[in-house]
Structure formats: structure tokens, C-alpha cells
From TrEMBL:
Chain ranges of the RNA polymerase sigma-70 region domain: 18-86
Keyword Transcription: yes
Coiled coil: none
Keywords per UniProt: Sigma factor, Transcription, Transcription regulation
The RNA polymerase sigma factor 70 region 4 type domain, residue ranges: 114-165
Family per record: Belongs to the sigma-70 factor family. ECF subfamily.
GO biological process, one term: DNA-templated transcription initiation
Database matches in CDD domains: Sigma70_r4 (cd06171)
Region (Disordered): 83-103
Domain of life: Bacteria
Protein name listed in UniProt: RNA polymerase sigma-70 factor, ECF subfamily
InterPro entries with a match to the protein in the record: RNA_pol_sigma-70-like, RNA_pol_sigma-70_dom, RNA_pol_sigma70_r2, RNA_pol_sigma70_r4_t2, RNA_pol_sigma_r2, RNA_pol_sigma_r3/r4-like, WH-like_DNA-bd_sf
Length: 170
């Protein structure tokens, strides 16, 4: 068997025969699976180099030589598709971030002050729930666990507090 001679003796004549037989077939297979001619040629070359390097790993009790070689080709094709579909890193801005406009900074400060004043008008039970949910970033279930209150009570207090805040800020 030709592949065995390549594996055992690194017989270049046997490999040339193997390459002559399987090289064009692997290229045709890759082109049928959607690769362009250049890509198929490069991939076929890579497959045959792999066959040369890993011929000793071939096990004739598990598959025929053709099955083994075409499995390598299929796997190389999948690797190529994954590589081609890999997204490019986004352009990262260089240098410091632009300073916000004075108007934007002033508006943000005013909105923050209004929100703080509106929060102070809430009943303690509602303000506490808002602080835990939005400032401490706790889920409703986590708040219920921490306070021992029923989940429905937590949700009701947060809903009522948000309604009051909307009314105060509008």
C-alpha cells in the first residue's frame, strides 16, 4: 500500500504517486464545496502536506486511505471557512476621549440635581427599593432575599416609586 510506504519509509516516490492521484481529486472536492480555484489549490496543498507529515497516524482498520484524506480535506475546509468568517477587530479610537460640551455637562448636572431632589421626596420604603435596584444593581429577587419582604411587595414599591419620580421630573 502506497500510504504505508510513505508512513514507514517516507518514500517520496510513493508520496508523488499519492499526490498525483489524490491532489486533483481533493482540489475538485474543495471547489464543489464552494472554494474558489486558488483557495482550493492552497487547501489541497495543505491537505497533502498533512498527509505526508501524519501518514503514520493512518489506521487502515478504521477507514480507507481515500476516506482519511478526504476527512482531512473536509476539516481543512471547515477551518478555512471559520477563518474567513472571523470578524475583524473594530477600529479603536486613538487618543483621549473628547471632552463633553459645556452645555451637555451643565444639563447632566441639572438633571442629576433634579433626580436627587425627587428621590428625597419618596417615602423611605420606596426610596430604599429604588436605591437597591438601580444604584446597587440588585435584582428584585436579591432585594427580597436581603430584606425578607415578599417579591410582590418589592415590585409594587419600585413601580410606585418610579411613577412618583416620573411625575416629579415631568
Amino acid at each position: 500500500m502506497v500510504l504505508r510506504r510513505v508512513a514507514e519509509a517516507q518514500d517520496s516516490t510513493a508520496f508523488a504517486a499519492l499526490f498525483a492521484h489524490f491532489g486533483p481529486r481533493v482540489k475538485a472536492y474543495l471547489m464543489k464545496s464552494g472554494a474558489d480555484a486558488t483557495t482550493a489549490e492552497e487547501c489541497a496543498q495543505d491537505v497533502m502536506v498533512t498527509v505526508w507529515r501524519k501518514a503514520a497516524q493512518f489506521d487502515p482498520t478504521r477507514a480507507s486511505a481515500a476516506t482519511w484524506i478526504f476527512t482531512i480535506a473536509r476539516n481543512r475546509r471547515i477551518d478555512m471557512l471559520r477563518r474567513d468568517r472571523r470578524p475583524e477587530p473594530e477600529d479603536l479610537p486613538w487618543g483621549p476621549e473628547a471632552e463633553p460640551d459645556q452645555e451637555d455637562a451643565l444639563a447632566l448636572q441639572q438633571e442629576t440635581a433634579q433626580l436627587a431632589a425627587a428621590l428625597r421626596t419618596l417615602p423611605e420604603a420606596q426610596r430604599s427599593m429604588i436605591e437597591r435596584a438601580y444604584f446597587n444593581e440588585l435584582s428584585h429577587s436579591e432585594i427580597a432575599d436581603a430584606t425578607g419582604l415578599p417579591l410582590g411587595t418589592i415590585k409594587s414599591r419600585i413601580r410606585l416609586a418610579l411613577e412618583r419620580l416620573r411625575h416629579s421630573l415631568s
